[in-house]
């Protein structure tokens, strides 16, 4: 089997090949690192490689597997992670100048769990500085390029994560999500990206953007991969004050549902307002396909969504500015211009603004909870617009230029306010770029969200198409 054909496979597929002896973890890690290095000048997905350590970990994985000690479906599979998630004793830059030499003493909770699962970590991935941006055009480490069209943004802030998996430079990965930073690049790069329920995945050892909105989750080539990686990283850690003690599901086993038993919610007034016409058609086509398979489709109302954009920004800007306040006073010129402006803007919000935003947030949570009593999931577009050219502050919305950041987070931000699980998955192309559909579910019901994703995926909405910049 050629290196290219191996690299195109999903994480769980190559995991099975490692475990049955078709390929070794060392061989696969060598092939992936060679491919990633050869493409990185074009895509700029990696900030750093950890080749020597990765190959040592792959060798250890091969020895354990040969001895029959298989730690799970991802044992021996190489993948990289976003550079705001710490690997103990190694540099994590947050794609910043201020923290360009930062070294953590400890592994992040999720990194420790990945190591325990036998995953081979190949390097750290590029991102928008301090995870506060949606185009991944970094002033310090350069822009990440979308593997579907190298002139287009990959989404952010986990743009390096999205581009790496889409171009076969990592079999799967982790992103972080405060207003959509897993789901935005997943939509833009044609991946499955899951923002789990707030508290399901511990955030210890991840540099914060906004304490009450931050999440960590998988970005993968398939729903099965996302389920397998979630199985690895989910679980309580007392070192994270937002971590919740809850039973971790068996997410891969949940991917066998019957569409006829599903009730699909559609919120028309917010999630289908001001949407690119081609995106809207693709998403509605998938809702109809579920209905054709026997699912029930029901309209739901979430009136407080009208205020969600303000509540999201008031919360995220205030919390982020508090985190970076001292550096904003003492080292303002070391921030990129775009995020320095956002941090300065966050200082403008008053305590009244912040607390009023939390009251709006509480109402939005209640409205979602009420809607999700009637339906299993709510389906919506992930993004209302397509990714623009790198450097553009605007996107096209049916022939009109609109602000990029406002529109990229418009449909993703509500799930950060509520903490509800939300999955983005690809459902077709427009002008050679992927379109994302979003599935929002009940708190800690990732099984249903992933199951709905697997049913949609089984219909092959991407018709087998892959990013042209890849293996």
Fraction of residues in helices? 25-40%
Oligomer, anyone? single chain
- Beta-strand residue fraction: 15-25%
- Strand order, largest beta sheet: 6-8-7-14-15-11-9-10
| Distance, first to last CA | 13 Å
The gyration radius over C-alpha positions equals: 20 Å
- Which sheet architecture does the biggest sheet show? 8 strands, mixed
Please give the CATH class of the largest domain.
Alpha Beta
Number of domains: 2
What coarse outline follows from CA principal-axis ratios? globular
Q: And the CATH topology of the largest domain?
A: Amidase signature (AS) enzymes
Coarse structural class: alpha+beta
Q: Show unreliable segments.
A: none
Continuous helix count: 17
* CATH homologous superfamily heading of the largest domain: Amidase signature (AS) domain
Explain the overall architecture.
This protein has 17 helices and 15 strands. By secondary structure, it is an alpha+beta fold. It has two domains: 3-189 and 213-233, Amidase signature (AS) enzymes (Alpha-Beta Complex), CATH 3.90.1300.10; 259-458, Amidase signature (AS) enzymes, CATH 3.90.1300. Helix 8 packs antiparallel against helix 17 (446-458).
